[in-house]
């Protein structure tokens, strides 16, 4: 299965992880047009919140891509969340980091 990795704000990661957000939007620009042309649906979308070594991330299946020229966005129809790292579904926030030993 193909995979695309990108960043996302924590607010939207929380909503997707909880299952409340079923559409993700990306602007219609040459960058996304090229990336989406290289994958075949369904594909895995890896969403990362930040750039550090232990940041919250999730992987979700994208079932379909719709091009909404009216709003100027691609609409990614999200399916099942297949992986969740460094995130507590119960608390809806990042997991605490273990203390470092000196």
Provide structural commentary:
- The chain has 2 helices and 7 strands.
- It has 102 residues and is an alpha+beta fold.
- The chain has one domain (3-91): Hypothetical protein (Archaeosine Trna-guanine Transglycosylase, Chain: A, domain 4), CATH 2.30.130.30.
- A 5-stranded mixed sheet has the order 1-3-4-5-2.
- A hairpin with a 4-residue loop joins strand 4 (57-68) and strand 5 (73-85).
Could you give a short description of this structure?
This protein is of the alpha+beta class and 102 residues long. The protein is 17% helix and 44% strand.
Task: Kindly provide the name of the CATH class.
Answer: Mainly Beta
**N to C succession of SSEs:** EHEHEEEEE
Kindly state the percentage of residues in helix: 10-25%
Q: In the CATH hierarchy, what is the superfamily?
A: Hypothetical protein
Q: What is the helix tally?
A: 2
By CATH, the architecture is named Roll
Radius of gyration: 15 Å
Our measurement of the CA-to-CA distance between the termini, rounded to an integer number of angstroms, reads: 42 Å
User: Which structural class best describes the helix and strand composition?
Assistant: alpha+beta
Dominant shape:
elongated
Number of strands: 7
Strand order, biggest sheet?
A: 1-3-4-5-2
